[in-house]
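Ligand: phenylalanine. Inputs:
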Amino acid sequence: MKLPEPQVAVLNAASATEELSIDRLAEEAGLKPETATQAVFELRDERLLDVEETESVEYELTEEGRAYVDAGLPEVRLYRAAIEAGADEEPVQMGRVIGAADLDGPEVDIALANFGRKGYGTIDSGELAADGDADTESDPEAVALVALANAANGDAGVDDGDADVEDAGDAENGGESETDPVADVGDDVLDQLVSRNLLDRHERTVRTVTLTDAGVTALMEGVETAETVDRLTPEMLASGEWQDVEFTEYNVEADAPEVRGGKTHVLRQTADRVKDVLVGMGFQEMDGPHADADFWINDCLFMPQDHPARTHWDRFALDVPPIEDLPEDLVDNVERAHREGVGEDGDGYHSPWSEDFARAIALRGHTTSLSMRYLSGTQVGDLEPPQRYFSVEKVYRNDTLDATHLLEFFQIEGWVMAENLSVRDLMGTFVEFYEQFGITDVQFKPHYNPYTEPSFELFGRHPTTGELIEIGNSGMFRDEVLEPLGVEHDVMAWGLALERLAMLTTGAEDIRDLHGTLADLDFLRGAEVTY
Ligand SMILES: N[C@@H](Cc1ccccc1)C(=O)O
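Predicted complex:
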């Protein structure tokens, strides 16, 4: 087998039985660590080496920690001074003890806090009492500090002069098995020292390398240095060897790692396609506020104010001032429709109706609020038939998250105003729309909405599970909706779920695979829609 020189050196230095760190391998192979690291990974890719990663934790004394190694912990100094002042016999004036303990500035607070915490004594109305039996000699924090300092000094100068102390299970840096100083110190003591800012904790990844069976076999069969080199190394540059070597030719057919560029999310692709289709069918786009007055979200739709969907269970209410600008005539008309009904035989709800509630702001639970705004003439003026409007926008519902429900999702809202519309027009529109997405068996089920009559739910068959899933809701707006708005023609309308459409076109079985924090990236990368 022929390999580039650094790989040959690393392979020869590696062992099948002993785990070696990359630094150690680099040293034995006479390579710079970065050259060795690269060679290690190349050899791993060729399955000649195994690389194992372990997290190691290192502790380093801070400047403050080092200062206490010599001077003693402030609380220990305070205790000694207290004993000398006889505070184990009877309480002593605190100021006297502090003075004698030679504590300055911030050390005073540190000493007092830890003195109490460790039960060295008590402080009461300016007097300090010491517990004569306290054993400051074996204070775990003090003992640990000294042990860590000794270990760090022992190491210093041997390697890189780093005064680091490593946690258990690490066999590098010198290798000689001394007892691990950190292993004897309990985790809670280490945590305490870190939180007192006497120790710094560093986490790092240590990679250890062993030969694989294939690596051993390769070595036994003989590994030679390839005559050509495939890259420049720092060593070649430093020695000038680069001038004499022959470089390997590029293999433009070699496998390369897969590079994934960004792509438009399937939901966005679906939304864009929906817009294209609807514009192609003669629709114009609506827009409007995500947070809107309940008036537009519900009252205009003849939704009684005590309807369950309007309770705090389903609604995301917002703690903001109520809406001010509502057309007064419209407010009156809507109130009248709710209380008394419309037309000659209209009846209304005869239930209380509060304008304050109507003006309160919430996140919209459907984009039918936009349809109300547009139909009322407040957005683009009064509209003469025929008119077609749509939106593909986000709505918010306090639902329970599951395979078919999200708390935020996109609705494909739409309506058509014309003279003499029938249910056939409504159904025909959906058939034409869904055909553009390859969905040819839309099914209709009679339904009830307070604002449409008749109403229909739409269902589509899931391509992989074969189950019928609900994909939309629709109907012809009632007079109780249209009359207050001043609309004198028929209006058919709908709200379709964009995510459900995407489930049918991508085969996603769980809506959460499509978007949100739980989205399945592999699924999304592979999801292909041919819109
Ligand atoms: N607002 C309805 C959809 C709908 C809109 C317009 C008319 C009829 C139904 C929903 O969210 O389910």
